[in-house]
């Protein structure tokens, strides 16, 4: 089985721009979660989707949004980027099991 | 929300030494998970624990679910260079998987000197 796939691996954006990150879960996994990882804050939960519905949400501003498609693939969007949004964004999928993580998208905001 | 205290924050050890790290919480969890993250990659699940007092091994790794349900320990025996990385504990209120009620520790950086 292929693992969780995230694209792109690296991204450089300018303050004020928006960005969309993509995640393909493990085949058969219906739950997709997103995390932001920074050296200072560790792994912080953004949101979780299950069967195209957001079922959990972390404490991030409304600039961070996501969605899930009928094939369980998910995207997250960050609008009006700030310097502090520079981080590794991790996607994880699950099927009533512990999270399986992708290798992340490294976002740098300049 | 839930908070996990993971210690130590970093460890500098010699190859061949045993390693111990732990996580403690002020709240009870029903599932404890241990992940390892290599540079440039996502975290990979090492061990999952679902029962208080449970002791589970995965090769040279052994993890325990504390009796009080508020702590967990990970031991690595006879460390080797590929053990280098960041180890994360995670506690979960339920046992159904996913991200619901899942809290991560800040990680233990393991550095091995040959």
Short description:
Chain A has 110 residues and is mainly β.
Report on the architecture of this protein.
The complex is a heterodimer of chains A (110) and B (114). Chain A contains no helices and eleven strands. With 110 residues, chain A is mainly beta. In chain A, strands 2, 4, 5, 6, 9, 10 and 11 form a seven-stranded mixed β-sheet that branches. Chain A has a four-stranded antiparallel β-sheet with strand order 1-3-8-7, with no helix packed on it. The mean pLDDT of chain A is 96. Chain B has 114 residues and is mainly β. Chain B has strands at residues 4-7, 10-14, 19-25, 31-37, 44-49, 55-58, 61-65, 71-76, 85-92, 102-104, 108-113. In chain B, strands 2, 4, 5, 9, 10 and 11 form a six-stranded mixed β-sheet that branches. The mean pLDDT of chain B is 94. Classes of the chains: A mainly beta (110), B mainly beta (114).
Beta fraction of the residues of chain A? over 45%
Mean pLDDT of chain B: 94
Shape of chain A: globular
SSE succession of chain A:
EEEEEEEEEEE
Poorly predicted regions of chain B: none
Which segments of chain A are poorly predicted (pLDDT under 50) over 5 or more consecutive residues? Answer: none
Number of helical elements of chain B: 0
Beta-strand fraction estimate of chain B: over 45%
SSE inventory with pairings:
The complex is a heterodimer of chains A (110) and B (114).
Chain A: E1 5-7, E2 10-13, E3 19-24, E4 31-38, E5 42-50, E6 53-57, E7 64-68, E8 74-78, E9 87-94, E10 100-101, E11 105-109
Parallel strand pairs in A: 2-11
Antiparallel strand pairs in A: 1-3, 3-8, 4-5, 4-9, 5-6, 7-8, 9-10, 9-11
Chain B: E1 4-7, E2 10-14, E3 19-25, E4 31-37, E5 44-49, E6 55-58, E7 61-65, E8 71-76, E9 85-92, E10 102-104, E11 108-113
Parallel strand pairs in B: 2-11
Antiparallel strand pairs in B: 1-3, 3-8, 4-5, 4-9, 6-7, 7-8, 9-10, 9-11
């Amino acid at each position: 089985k292929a693992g969780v796939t995230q694209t792109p691996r690296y991204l450089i954006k300018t303050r004020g721009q928006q960005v969309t990150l993509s995640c393909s879960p493990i085949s058969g996994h219906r739950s997709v979660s997103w995390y932001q990882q920074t050296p200072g804050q560790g792994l912080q939960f953004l949101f979780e989707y299950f069967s195209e519905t957001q079922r959990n949400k972390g404490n991030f501003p409304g600039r961070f949004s996501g969605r899930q498609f009928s094939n369980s693939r998910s995207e997250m969007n960050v609008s009006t980027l700030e310097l502090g949004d520079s981080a590794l964004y991790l996607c994880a999928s699950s099927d009533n099991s512990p999270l399986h993580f992708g290798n992340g998208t490294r976002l740098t905001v300049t | 929300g839930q908070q996990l205290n993971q210690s130590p924050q970093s460890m500098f050890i010699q190859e061949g030494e045993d390693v111990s790290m732990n996580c403690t919480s002020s709240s009870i969890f029903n599932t404890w998970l241990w992940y390892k993250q290599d540079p440039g990659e996502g975290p990979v699940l090492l061990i999952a624990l679902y029962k208080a007092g449970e002791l589970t091994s995965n090769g040279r790794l052994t993890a325990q679910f504390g009796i009080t349900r508020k702590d967990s320990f990970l031991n690595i025996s006879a460390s080797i260079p590929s053990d280098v990385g960041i180890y994360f504990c995670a506690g979960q209120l339920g046992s159904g998987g996913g991200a619901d009620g899942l809290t991560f520790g800040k990680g233990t950086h393991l550095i091995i000197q040959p």
